[in-house]
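Consider one such protein record:
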Amino acid sequence: MKKITALLMAAMMMLCLPAAFAVELPEGVPSTLQAPTISNLELLKNEDGVPYFRVEVTVPVSVIELDEARPTDGWVDMEMEGTYGEGDDQEPLADGGGLSVWVNEENAVPGKVNTYYGTFELIDEGGMTETDIKAKAYSFRYRFSYTYYYGDGPGEWDYVYSPWSNELANKSESFYQDASSWAVGELDKAKAADLIPQILMGADMTKPITREEFAELALVLYEKTSGITAETVAANPFTDTTNPQILKALNIGVTQGTSPTTFSPKVLINREQCATMLFRTIKAIAPNGDYSIEGIKDFPDQANISEYAVQPTKYMSKLGIIKGDASTGSFMPKATTTAQQASGYGMATREAAILMSYRTYEKMK
């Protein structure tokens, strides 16, 4: 692994040199960078039959903008760190390069905003001719660094870093980075039922879910339960996404835009929005079903539920898919105060959304 060893030695030297000269950050240089998110680890082969791993790396807008602005004439690098092997035989992997070289149309993931392919070849220049992939465990994670200058003299440069991304492994028993203990059982059942979209593979399940992620989750539920493959809309009305999964969900009526021309894919969704999208999914699967909510009692916080979400929230509660708070019975549809907004009150997490999808599947299959 000559190439890998050289990369590691170079990285260690670069980290050690400027440490003694750390100074106050120059104007425009942030104290930290946002972390990337990685998903969809795949083992592929190139045209010469050489195996390589590929992941999808989502780059925060702030990192792209920093590399474009380049305060102090610095630049952003993307770094990959990983391991292969297990126990005493585990060895490090490393790779990296300038963000401006890597973030381009050639590496762009179709239909996903600011998401690019990251690759790592398993056969390197060190003379390895065969890689027994199945016998070894490979893991990968990514981060960004920004090199900046604080003077004109030798060594007057330093780095700021992002946190590491979530970690993906080819032999991981779970499909997620983290999950609450109460959710693990049903998450595994949802995975076994093929209800997890690629966009959520490798994600932290305890974090809030975005509109894009939930649209893909709902689409998988629709196709798996109905047995029908959805088709995309004839013309994309949105200017902020080209994700074909979103356009399919739009076509079957599962989701809508936030305006005639925007979808807002990265916006987080709350519990009443989650209930509404699931309700639309059920109606798309069974358009002639009985969706009466007669006799269903109001929630203690019924006044906080938006008018459009009254039927969906009560119907999903009727099915036992989305329930009120165990202690108060409140639905917690959305944040209504600044304090609630700050605490994430009423937001739907990824694991909660997946569990809702799985329970819906169990009710309707």
